[in-house]
């Protein structure tokens, strides 16, 4: 099975429908209460914000690997892991705001995308804790595992955006 076929299979993941619909409904209700849905979705900018913000943690974590394996600057790598972790909650919030507007097939992929990225973020939290305790090699290894999970999440996010057209013109009306 090639990667595209695997991504298409996620679209048929019917077992995710109940939890995915419940999550979307809870997010919609919460954002409607706070009246922040349009702002979080980027209506003021003219396009969704989540794709813009994802570059911050991903960039920080990729650069941490460059410092780990290229320059050997452990301090810089640790700071970049921490910076990526700090950028993760707002990135996730914006993704959840977009998630609430997806259709059923897109929610299936969106749930897998979120799970892969949450796994990656958790691995980077482990990476940071290892580094903070002086176990730099273990921290670097956890970071590589985190990049692998984030890569899978990115592939799912790309499929969601480009193959499924998620979010296309939806930011305007929500």
From TrEMBL:
Pfam families: DUF2231
Higher taxonomy: Bacteria, Bacillati, Actinomycetota, Actinomycetes, Pseudonocardiales
Name used for this protein in its record: Membrane protein
Domain DUF2231 per the UniProt entry, residue ranges: 46-169
InterPro entries linked to this entry: DUF2231_TM (IPR019251)
Source species: Amycolatopsis magusensis
